[in-house]
Amino acid sequence: AQTVTQSQPEMSVQEAETVTLSCTYDTSESDYYLFWYKQPPSRQMILVIRQEAYKQQNATENRFSVNFQKAAKSFSLKISDSQLGDAAMYFCAYRSAWAGTASKLTFGTGTRLQVTL
Amino acid sequence: DGGITQSPKYLFRKEGQNVTLSCEQNLNHDAMYWYRQDPGQGLRLIYYSQIVNDFQKGDIAEGYSVSREKKESFPLTVTSAQKNPTAFYLCASSIPQARVGRTEAFFGQGTRLTVV
Predict the structure, then answer these.
(1) Which chain A residue shows the shortest CA-CA distance from B42?
(2) What are the distances in angstroms from CA A72 to CA A27, A61, A67, B38?
(3) Dist CA A110 CA A77 (whole Å)
(4) Are A112 and A8 in contact (CB under 8 A)?
(5) Is B94 close to A108, i.e. CB distance below 8 A?
(6) Which of A16, A74, A79, B59 is most buried as measured by Cβ atoms within 10 A of its Cβ?
(7) Residues B59-111: pLDDT tens digits?
(8) Contact A104/B33, CB-based, under 8 Å?
């Protein structure tokens, strides 16, 4: 079974600075998808960024980028120019690319990000 | 607008009672999921369904039941057998063929269940 580990329960960053959230995962599969979701105080889950394992290029979405290290099974999220609205819980998630019973998402325990002035 | 609707937003249940949480989607997604969220434990999968009339247990299915009679609907029943049902429940949907189109799951706004 796949597992996702987020070893940083809480992180803090000053506004306009850069912060990196860590995520590692364990899988025996070669083809899969990785995601970062944001959960603000409203508790609505919002997709931040996705990465396909077969792509070597790291995904980027505006101020958000990932460092995907497939061999190390590492998938960190970098937030540049942090804004107050970035304060939230961030979850890393794994999904098998096999279109069978393994299409479920497996989540890490989350990292709470605080943004200070 | 397409999306996932969960109702109610807040739900109170007396001990020993069954209660059903509603989840409806109009995204035309085949796959639907139920997750439970507790503080410090992330999201844990309760049940998921890839097609109508079929569903599989997730990691914490004991004390829960589901049905999938329509593509749009995936209700979750929290039974009296669930020992600690107070939690935040999230419903999600996605395209099961992960390589076709968007691969992520879309989430509802959640239901907060409290046992009183």
Answers:
(1) A109
(2) 11, 23, 11, 29
(3) 12
(4) no
(5) no
(6) A79
(7) 999 999 999 999 999 999 999 888 899 999 999 998 865 555 567 889 999 99
(8) yes
Per CB-CB distance under 8 Å, the chain B contacts of A97 are 98-99
Q: Please tell me which residue of chain A has the smallest CA distance to B105.
A: A105
The C-alpha atoms of residue B8 and residue B112 are separated, in whole angstroms, by 8
| Residue A4, both tokens | 């996702």
**pLDDT tens sequence for chain A (117 residues):** 789 999 999 999 999 999 999 999 999 988 889 999 999 999 999 999 999 998 889 999 999 999 999 999 999 999 999 999 999 999 999 988 875 645 788 999 999 999 999
- CA A24 → CA A32, A35, A73, B17, B40, distances in Å? 14, 12, 6, 40, 17
